[in-house]
Structure formats: structure tokens, C-alpha cells
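> tool_call: predict_assembly(chains=two)
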Amino acid sequence: MDFDFSSDQQALGEAIQRIVADHRALPRTGNIVEPRTFHPATGLEAALADGGFFDIAREPGFGAVEAAILVYEAGLSPLVLETGASALIAPLLTGEALPRPVAVARLADLTRGVRFLAEARTLLVDLGDDVAVVDMAATAVAPLDGPYAYPLGKFAAVPDLAAARRLGSARVGELRRLWRLALALDIAAAMQAATDFTTDYVKQRQVFGRPVGSFQAVQHRLAADAEKCRGTYWLAMKAAWSGSALDAVLAALHAQRAIAQVNYDVHQFNGALGMTLEHALHLWTFRLRWLVGEMGGYRAQAADVAALAWPDAPRKAG
Amino acid sequence: MEFAWNESEEAYRAELHEVLSTLPADWWESYAPHGPSSPRLMEHARRFNARLAERDLIVRHWPREYGGCDASAWQQIIISEEMWSIGEPRSSLYLGTNWAGPAIMKFGTEAQKRRYLRAIAAGELLWCQGFSEPEAGTDLGNMKTRAEPDDDGYVVNGSKIWTSYAARADVMFLLARVGGKGKGGVSCFIVPMDTPGLEVRPIPGVHSRHDFHEIFFSDARLPADALLGEEGNGWQIVQAIIHYERIGAGRYEKAARALAHVVDVLKARGEFDDPVVRADCAAALAAVEAARLQTYLVIDGRAKDKAPGAETYLARWAMIQADHAVANLSSTYLPDLLVDGADGHLRAQFNSAITAGIAAGAAEVQLNMISGRHLGLPRGA
């Protein structure tokens, strides 16, 4: 066992952290943050692309753990950037550098709403018995507005995927494993960032003559949330390391189940300020609102955990 | 980054399995459900621990000079997992291997090391922990038991309460006040349980008549060399060992094995096809694995000689959640198996889960520590 990153992984993480820090400023008009539900990470995307970070999983000697580092670190930014599908799912699923951004969806999601679909250049579709790789150049997608901090889009009707490239039924399980891993990393990062942001806030904000964060009722809930963040993170990193389908779905399940409490707590502790667009909290919590239901939500992950952990043959007791 | 066991760790686990295979056939029926402090299990532990010692299995992670094999800290968590998950057949030997021994290594005199460390490695000492008092449970700094210096040692008066293992333990790790009020007045002593003036009375527990004891000290005389470390540095010793104590028991592994058993029973009853049941079991498994990884993170730091940090408290909190998640499954879906004599495996985990948030520091203390040391939140008024 060794929970430390290798020296290369450590250097990679630090390099990404520097780039994310250099490009985390929210767009402002004068001194006021522009009031948006989300802010695209245009500068961050360009800097990471220039550095070749989106191809990290295909570099010799690198793979899912290195891609996971990118997805997690970028996910901490208040600016929203698609990394999970581009840097982790697509390259490890296809071995190729597919045109970015990449959206990923189940067939039924296409007419309901998909993260990054409106701007995607490639779409990966879980057809149930196959995986379709769709070139989005000639498709029309309607953007969706809502209480979510992602650019969302949907098709008006189920698109004709007859011409789309197929990866074969054997890749369906791999798509789901990688998607769950990316989902768990996105959730771990957004929960961590929202918790960190809130922790800083309650240290400063005074109520009844004391910092909000000095009240035990606040401390205990934030402490429990902190554990959910770390537990999710380590489940995800182990899943990245192991390549196990069970590890990935366990991470996604744990992550999605944690969201409701974390989101509730951080909004409670930010009070009315957290209800405003000039305060950054929603930039993570409104991501979590979407992620909690992705891939069918925790019940779907739980069903697959049960199927993988406890297949039909009875286990030997004891 | 590496999340797999190496060959030597796997071999160690296999050796432990060989010794565990010698447990009585009625282990789950007659021993484990009554807990590691039950008289029958404690008496059996003396024979069982001797079998472990014959193969040098007890403290592989200790230095050779103290009876260990210079193995990594990972071997300590392996034996903790294997023993705790089956009901801790070592009984309270584990207090010695997990933290009393390390405390003696760090703070003890050469004579104390010679006297106690080899005996722990040989599986000869069952310990109890004299910390809590009637007015000082979680608030240890409020303890009142006093050890007054006299010419050739100390005279102890006071009482301890809710002490496991005391009726059959050989030795106690005692906290007593030598100096004034507060944490600075606390000192540590190692006290043989046959010390005159020390009386043990059982307190019937909710799960066993043998779980708890009250201990009375009436002019109990201790020699000067019973003191561990220096007078007044007891709190420092406690702080040093607390990281060992809080994650010393492999509760997540016990929960994991109980969960597997729950699923087997539910399948056999045809009740595992219910999607709600499956989802609850899956969520419990995720909680167990999150606790496991956070515990391993602490062990990883220990193996690398890193100073312990807030990870210990995060791991303990995770462990408490996992233990309760599985116990709640048992009581929700298999309540009939928790009655006396029905299923010792589930009963053992169910009984011990209730202690998870109390033993080794209340759950709320873990949250306090996470708040202060991990989040850096300001102290309350």
C-alpha cells in the first residue's frame, strides 16, 4: 500500500494546481462578479490544452490515475470545465484523442438534458448494448437553462445514430466504469471546493458576536461533510488505480449519496449570501445538483454495486 | 500510489488464518457474541495468544529488540482486521499491542520496556484501561483519581468506571492526578491488577454482564517505577497514543464480513431481490470501503513515520458510520437473528457497533478534532 503519488504524479498535480490557480478569476463588471449560474473556464481550458494535459491518459507510463488528478484538480475551480469525458473517459475507452469537449450520455438522456452537450464536438452514447461515438459537427442541440452550474443541452428528438461509429458491446461496461469514475471525481471536487469555501466563510462571518464557525452545531456538520469529501476522494482514487468496475461504482454511489447533506449544510452556513449569484458557492453546489442524478442517481449505482459485489451464487458465510 | 497488499503482507494474513482455524467450532455461538471482555473469551484468549506467540505473529510490526520482527505498520492493521472481525479472540491483548506497548516504547524506562514489551509480544498480558471516571468520561481532563507521592512511590485513591476487561486483566494503564487541576496534572501509571487496595466490581452492561467494571483505589500503593514517563506528562502520552487507539480496531472489516453474512441470509430467504434492500446493502458497503481507505491512509502515514494528523479523526468518524450502517441493516431486515442464540456472527457485530461512537473517544470528540485540526475552525465560547 502506498497512498502517496509518485514523484511524476506529484509534479503533474502541482503543475495543474498552478494553472488552475492562475485561471480561477471570475469575470467581473467593475467590482461585481458577473451574475451567472456558471462561468466557462475558457482561459483554463486553453492553458491545459497548451500543456497537453487533456492527453495525459495516453502518455506512456500514465493512465487513469493521472487523468483522475486532472479531473479532480480542475473540478475544484469555480470555473466550469469539461475534463472527465475528454481527458479520462474518451482516451481510455477509445485510445484516441477525440475532438473536445466530449459529452457522455445514456440514450434516454439525449432528449432530457446532458452536461456539455450544447458545446460538445463529440458525444459518447451508452446505447445499452453498444457505445456510439457521435461527431457533433452536423447536429443541432438546444441549450438548456436551469438551476445547474453546467452548460446543458438536449436534442429535440432522439437523433439518428445509424451513421455513428460503434465501439461494440464489449465496451459498454468500460464506458460505465470510466463514466462513474469521472462522476465520482467531479462530485468529490465540487463537494470539497464547496466545503472549503464554506469553511473560509464561517471563519470570517460573525453572528451573535462570534464567528459562525465557532458554533458546535456548525462545526460538527462541516466536520462530517469533510469526511464525506475525503471518503469520496479516496474511493475515486482507488477506483482510478484499480480499474475495477466495482470500485468505480462504489465511488459513484458514495459520492451521490453524500451530495444531499453536503449541499444542504453549505447553503445553510452561507445563509442568504449563498442565494446570490455574486457569491461563488452556487458554482459548485449547482453542479452537485446535476451530478446527483447523473447515470440514474444513487439507486442505479446501488443496483450495480449489489450486482457486482454479490452475484447470484451465495457467498460462503463466515 | 498502490492499493494492493504485498506478498509478505498476504503471507502474514495467511498465517493468521491458520491460527484462527484453531478457534473452537462453537466460536460464533458461544464466544464472539458475548464480546472480547467476556470471562470465557478472556480465558480462551490466554491459550489463543500463546499460539499466536509461538509463531511470532503478535507484534511483527515492533522492533526486534522488543519482540517484534521490524515489519511495517501495515502488519498491525492486518492482525487488527483479522482479529477484530471475528470478535477479537486476543481479548485485551490488543490494548497492549496497539497503544500501551508503543507508549512504553516511547516513554518508558529500560526496566519497564524489559518487563512489559516482551510479555506483550509473548501474548502474556491482558490489559485494561483506567481512563474514565464517574465525572470524567469524554472530559478526561476533569479526572479526580489522585496518586499522591510518598517516600517510595505513590498512594492512589479514587475510582474508575466503565472499564472493560478489568475483572480478568493482568495490568492496567492508569491515568491519575499527581499535580493540580487540568490536563497538566495528569500522569500515567502501569498498575498490576493484583495491587492491594485495588477493587474491581462488575457493572452489568446492555449486551453482557461482563462488559464494564468500576474500579476503586483505596490507599493502593504503587512503586515509583509504576510511573510511565514523567509526573504531569500523562496528557502528552495520551495525545501521542490516541492516534493508535482510535483506529486500532479493524471495525470496518468486522462490518464488511457481517455485511457479507447479511446478504447471504437475505439471499437464502429470497429477500435480496428487493431493490431497496439491495440499495441499502450497497450503501453500507460503500461506507465500509470509505472507512477502510481512510484508515489505511493513517497507517500509510505511520509506516512512513509521518506525524499523525487529523486523518485519524476522519477515519474514526468514517468507521463509526460504517459500523452503524451494517448494524442498522441487521436490525432492519434481520431483527429475528439478533435474539439470543440465533446468529452469533450478526449479534457480535451488532453488539459492538453500539460502542463505536463511545469507545476510544466519543464520536462528537472526533468531530471536534476534525473541526479544529482539519478545518481550522475557531474554538467556541
